[in-house]
């Protein structure tokens, strides 16, 4: 199994780097965000899967695609739990 997993729970720890990615389009910050992690998943990583593949060309990627409305309803339901 994997020990070092980056998930949406880690976003608060890497807020400054995500701010650089989102506001400044500083994609080099992605490497800082994922440093030391073996797996990345969840929000907002799936929004940048193409950039992640460019930065990590040997990475194995599993990208699931869902109906946007179904996905959003699922997210809203999860927030209510």
Q: Can you describe what's shown?
A:
This protein is mainly alpha-helical. Helix content is 46%, strand content 5%. It has four helices and two strands; from the N terminus they run E-H-H-E-H-H. The protein has a two-stranded parallel ribbon with strand order 1-2. Helix 1 packs antiparallel against helix 2. The longest helix has 13 residues. The protein is globular and about 35 Å long. 11% of the residues are buried.
Summarize the structure.
The protein has about 80 residues and is mostly helical. It is about 45% helix and about 5% strand.
What's the arrangement of secondary structure elements?
Elements (H helix, E strand, L loop, with lengths): L4 E2 L8 H10 L3 H7 L4 E2 L8 H7 L12 H13 L1
Parallel strand pairs: 1-2
Order of secondary-structure elements = EHHEHH
Sheet with most strands: strand arrangement: 1-2
What class would the helix/strand composition place it in?
mainly alpha
Name the overall outline: globular
Helix content: 40-55%
Please provide the count of β strands. Answer: 2
Strand content: under 5%
Task: Spell out the key features of this protein.
single chain; two-stranded parallel ribbon; 5% strand; mainly alpha; 81 residues; 4 helices; globular
């Amino acid at each position: 199994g994997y020990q070092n997993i980056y998930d949406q729970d880690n976003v608060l720890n890497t807020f400054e780097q995500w701010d650089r990615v989102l506001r400044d389009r500083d994609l080099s910050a992605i490497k800082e965000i994922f440093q030391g992690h073996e797996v990345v998943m969840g929000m907002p990583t799936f929004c940048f899967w193409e950039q992640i593949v460019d930065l990590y060309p040997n990475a194995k990627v599993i990208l699931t695609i869902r109906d946007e409305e179904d996905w959003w309803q699922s997210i809203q339901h999860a927030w209510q739990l």
